[in-house]
Amino acid sequence: MKNSPHKNLLQTLLLLCISNVLIFLFATSAIAQTNISGRVTNAANEPLPYASVTNKNTNKAVVTDNNGAFTIAARAGDVIEASIVGYINQQITVNGSEPLSFVLQPGETKLNEVVVVGYNTQSRRNLTSAVATVSGDELNKRVQTNPATLLQGQLPGLQVVQNSGQPGNEGVSLLIRGVGTFSGAGTAPLIIVDGLPGSLSVLNPNDIESVSVLKDAASAAIYGSRGANGVIVIKTKKGKPNSGFSVNYNYSLGIQKATALPDLVTNSARFMELSNEARLNSGLQPLYTQDQIDLYKDATDRVKYPNHNWLNDVFRTATVQNHYLNMTGGAENTNYSLSIGYADQDGVMIGFNEKKYTMDFGLSSRVSKRITIGTNIQMRYSHRLAPENGGTDMFLSTIAQSPLYPPRTADGLWIKRAYPNELGNKNTVAIVAEDAVIRYDDYYAQGNLSLDVDIIDGLKWENRAGMNFDANKYNDFRPVVQTYYYNDLSPAGILDDGTPGLNVGRADNIYTVYYSQLTYKKQLGSHNISALAGFQQEYNGASNIDASRIQFPTNDLRELNAGPADGQTNRGTSSAWAIRSFYGNANYSFEDKYLLGASIRYDGTSRLPKDSRWGLFYSFSGGWRISKENFLKNASWLNDLKIRASWGQLGNQNIGTYPYQATLDNRSYVFGTTVQTGFAASTLVDPSLTWETTRVVDVGLDMTVLNNRLTFTADWFNKYTFDILRASQVPLWLGLNAPTINNGALRNTGFELEAQYRDVIGKNFSWYVGGNIQAYKNKLEEFGKTEIGGNTIREEGHPLDEFFLYQWDGIFQSQEEIDKSPTQPVTPTPGDLKIKDINGDGIINTDDRTYTGGRYPSFQYAINLGASFKGFDFSAQLFGSQGQKIYVNGWGIEPFRQGSLPTTDWLNRWTPENHSTTLPKIYVADSYPAVQNYASTYFLKDASFLRLKNVQLGYTLPASIMSKAGIKNLRVFVSADNVFTASKFPGLDPERTSFSSTYVSYPQNRTITFGASVQF
Amino acid sequence: MKKITIIYILFLPIAVSISSCKKGFLDRTPTDRLSTAIFWQKESDADLALTGLYNYLYAPGGGYATSQFTIMSWDNFSDDAYGQYDYGGGTSALTGGITPQSGGFVYSYYANSYQAIAAINSFLANVGKVLTGDKLTQYKAEAYFLRGFYYEWLAQLYGNVPITLEDPFLIDFKSTQGKSSKAEVLKQVESDLDSAIAGLPDEPYTTGHAVKGTAQGYKLRTLLLEEKWAEAAALAKEIIDGGKFSLNPNYAGNFYKPDQNASPEIMFSVKYQLPNVQHQDVALAVHLQKWKGELGTQDLINEYEPGDPRKTMTFFFIGDTQAQGWPFTGDLAVATPGKDSWIDGYYAVKKWLTPGMVNPDYGALDDNDFVLLRYADVKLMYAEAQNEAVGPDAGVYQQVNEVRARPDVNMPPLPAGLSQAEMRERIRHERRVEFALEGLRYHDLRRWGIATEKLNGFVPNPLFPNIKTKYEDKYQFWPIPQTEIDRNQPDLEQNPGY
Description:
The complex is a heterodimer of chains A (about 1000) and B (about 500).
Chain A: H1 5-26, E1 36-42, E2 52-55, E3 60-63, E4 69-72, E5 79-83, E6 90-93, E7 100-104, E8 114-117, E9 120-123, E10 131-135, H2 136-139, H3 147-150, E11 158-162, E12 172-176, E13 190-193, E14 196-197, E15 208-214, H4 217-220, E16 231-236, E17 244-258, H5 268-281, H6 290-298, H7 311-314, E18 318-330, E19 334-346, E20 353-366, E21 371-387, H8 390-399, E22 414-417, H9 428-433, E23 437-456, E24 459-478, E25 482-485, E26 491-494, E27 501-524, E28 527-550, E29 569-590, E30 594-605, E31 614-625, E32 638-652, E33 665-666, E34 669-671, E35 674-676, E36 679-680, E37 692-705, E38 710-722, E39 725-727, E40 740-742, E41 745-761, E42 765-782, E43 787-788, E44 792-794, E45 802-805, E46 808-811, H10 815-820, E47 833-835, E48 850-852, E49 859-869, E50 872-882, E51 885-889, H11 929-932, E52 940-942, E53 945-956, H12 959-962, E54 969-983, E55 996-998, E56 1005-1015
Parallel strand pairs in A: 1-7, 13-16, 22-25, 51-55
Antiparallel strand pairs in A: 1-4, 2-3, 2-5, 5-6, 8-9, 10-15, 11-12, 13-14, 15-16, 17-18, 17-56, 18-19, 19-20, 20-21, 21-23, 23-24, 24-27, 25-26, 27-28, 28-29, 29-30, 30-31, 31-32, 32-37, 33-36, 34-35, 37-38, 38-41, 39-40, 41-42, 42-49, 43-44, 44-45, 45-48, 46-47, 49-50, 50-53, 51-52, 53-54, 54-56
Chain B: H1 2-19, H2 44-55, E1 60-63, E2 66-67, E3 81-82, H3 90-95, H4 105-126, H5 133-157, H6 182-199, H7 212-225, H8 229-242, H9 259-262, E4 266-270, H10 284-290, E5 295-296, H11 298-303, H12 310-314, E6 347-348, E7 370-374, H13 375-389, H14 394-404, H15 420-434, H16 441-447, H17 451-455, H18 482-487
Antiparallel strand pairs in B: 1-2, 3-5, 4-7, 5-6
Helix pairs in contact in B: 2-4, 2-5, 4-5, 5-6, 5-7, 6-7, 7-8, 7-13, 8-13, 13-14, 13-15
């Protein structure tokens, strides 16, 4: 390595870290001497430093040292009280001069919990950064196969949106503190599992011990270039020392239905009349003859002339089953946790299923006095089925089949349409029954080995090496299936399931990571220091290969070799990236009152050019425990009060693998009868590309009051992202693909509040209620030329991708009203949409589009409550998201898109007789200009919702009875998910990740789960 | 001792990884693409780059089953065909109109053409590094042809557009540009095509590489667009006298493989080749014959003179069976309007169908070349230009009559004594029936200034006389895509009326 400036910087950094450690080492202070000594510990005989020990008779107080020891002046008969935040106070009367031994019992408070932060753990009381945490127990009150869905409403600052209830493909979007960037680097937070980057969704939720969200720069800066979108840190189960051996088995059976389905016009005659009316309104030829309508209207034979509701064929009540077996325990020096899980979930839509197998292995062993080794390994195999074109296509195709025919005749013929003149999409029942269903197999393993060496007291050398391996494959076969017209059973061509034949593919990804660090922790009198410094290296290699064959002689064999070689194709490639990092962190506290922290990281990435690939990221934070100050000493209602603040810079580099390298596109052409290879360069690159940076300021407050019953946390943040890695705006005439450049800035400001109250009434009844609320505002501060998309705008000073729409202003009731009104974008007729003339120039054109709110939720909130009485326990979670709107169009919300069924709302449409002011006259939504040629607020729907996310009732059988059967614990429960949803969103579930999409998509599930958990 | 061993093992990776700095742990390059840095160094690079330019002819057309030069979809914009799936965007253009936000061809011809032009400009700037002499001249001439070809499309559709001729990699990508007038754009087209004509080999069109006649043919189109009648007539005469091209005695053989490969009539086409280079998304026979993405109008059928065999060579009629080339068997063995996507009141298309194709559907394979210029067009362009320049002289008659007298068409000559106006109508008629479903009608109507007359209020399906198409005069200049206007503010102004 050349003596580059980077290396010098690194050396300086390391020196800094080391010198910090040394400075703290020598900054000691003395402790006073008195005549009665003692020790304060917790139930596990671990010392409790900084506990207050007060002589109630003299009102003199001292503080315990790092061994929990104290000495205090006292006489026999004096009452001595020991207290510390998070524990219940204990009093002992002095009897002679023997040492006093306080064993404090924990109070119900989060303050004592150990929070997993970057490369380290910290007690919550010492945190100077914004970290939200939830325990695995709390998460697993809901029963879901994908743990990511469980995070919703649990962690203030983390916005969780579940796109659908599709098994194994829930499309969960995780967003920490708003949309931080518009670059290809994305907004997904970094996921850390057991200390190393990994995957959350592959885990079995039961294997999770805790989840922390690192929200601010102080907590995330140690992850440097990968921390800009925040970090989610997951700890899996590992067993507890000296806990013996126990076996735990959980079983649950869930029954699921779609939370909401549209109400469609399924009366065939009514449908045909509406269709003809819509087509005439749209200037199209009517599809149905009066004869056809009369046949269905007057029919007595409802087999031949049905009013068929296809939703009943495609949506079903489905089950989900979970088995989970865990063996955990710990001897003196070794603890372990082994588990295996199996979940089998059917979709509420036919054709969907996932079987998920998980294994988890956690082990930690102190193999000698100084050396601890450990491992955590998770494996997951998922076998997933999904119809050829996915959930949205299944749904929209289903409602684009008319009610005039069933999917198949009694003789087993698949029906395409009733009449050739009908429109429609495809027979979704045939798609599933004929197995045009894709198999997805995903094999995933993540694991690490650790070796920790206690070098000298307080100095630890920690090493961790990990590897994530993902291999997935798909097998996508499209059969040839004959279809028929229902009216005369004449052939109607083959089922519209794409090009018949087989596509298969394999992709694999290997990620290796290694870090080695020195950690130093020392308590010196009133000074507590901890520091760490380390080195990390990551490599990721991905490859894929796909192949296809067509014109199979049979529908029964779905392997490449079963098809002819003519027309076969294949393709494949590989890519790699690497990051190398140096990092450090130091924390200092004085008398548990003044807290300071700093983190630093120096990252180099293969994604950026040599001269600009190294980036430095850092943060500083401080906390002040006001409750320790003398002026609050006597505030007995106050258990703890801390304010904290942090500032720091984080990076983002997660853009395409080779964004700065100019390459040639392969562009071949046929000359004569041979294909000749050709090349062209068509993409610009910026050779001086560098990091995208996010700067976060966070101010927070943690408070515990009323004898530890009420805890309260508040955070305010200002997150500013600049040098955003984005595609430049290039003019079309330049003819080249835009380069990725550093340009643009975005700001998110917001707050998070969290409060929880818990209490015990009498002997047996305990209860809690908690809630959180989060809100943020998003502003594009630097962008360049205003860019207007289909229905959104990117303009400086406005939220990113704010809706930018024509304003819908009712329905034209008469020609006279049209004549009096400003010129509309498309010449309307009575019953069409009326659009507002925003600039008042008498003509409505692109200048009349305007900013429309609702792109982001105004706030999101959650309420959790629970109670337990004797063996019964009850809990409920409410989650709400307020203020967001979704732009939806197409099948379901618009009539007759591809012949799709209108909802029953359209029975109240505008007609010359029925002067509706909310629904226009019925139209055919296959590009009806008066409605569809411009994006208006007509399509923008309020998607605010409040939902009872979960309610659960459990009963734990009395231990006295169970122990006779050798059972430590047996609990049965019934739990309901997505119990009800209050929303103005029309017809379907309002929760989805996209702010602009087709109206229908795979639905959310309402689930009732019955389960039992037994521990031996 | 043991501990020390462990410590060594642990330190090893650090030592290895740090020392591996030199080998470039962080230096990762694409494994499946060549770096631009190694290009333009060998003579063979010129061939690779030239092939790359032609590849832009495969650009997508902005919708399913339609590439940019799936030219029959152009007829959905006209009174010749109805596009039930809106291939190319013609159906929405005729019902909802054309706006700066329109997709389909309205967007793709603009964006695609400039992408091709960028590659051409880059080629012209660099090819001199690896070629010299005649070879350089010829390679450059091919690039000039393609640039002229694309600018001609832009001029014909949008009229006023920006002109860019420099190596795009040397242009500041943040710069903006205004538009040049249609006349200036056409001047550029002429200049590029002149350079092409000067450098291209004077030989028949066989491989797919443009030849001199190709460039002359496009220049001829340009001159007609500019109504430079005399100059056009002279150039057409030059092509005809050059004798490198002739009518294919088999009219239909211009439209399918392998006959296309040997057709002396084709002067330029987009080439396909099974199994590797197929049409976008589905075979042409699926697009046209199975799904009936284009259906002929009654108005076009009525245009055919009685006994004109081109009618049955271009369309299927009720009752047709295998004997008439109808490709479907079984229950669909008899052509029946109202069945299998055939909308009553229209006509299913036969042109472009490869004989012997049976029951085309998903998975069918064909590789018809899209024919963009035929010698018959040159002959009719001559007739049109000469008729406008000097009136219906013998040469005009001769060229029209020769097209009509193609052996398997064998239509009688035009009656003598036609006035100039009558001859004009005869030529327009001849173009309509000769080139049906070859994408020329819409451009002819706009060129002749009769698009509004023909397309506004047109009834595509006589069974539904109340349903009429819309066309506005302003479409003579298509709108420049809104994105382009936004990105070139304040320099670039939209065409009038949008």
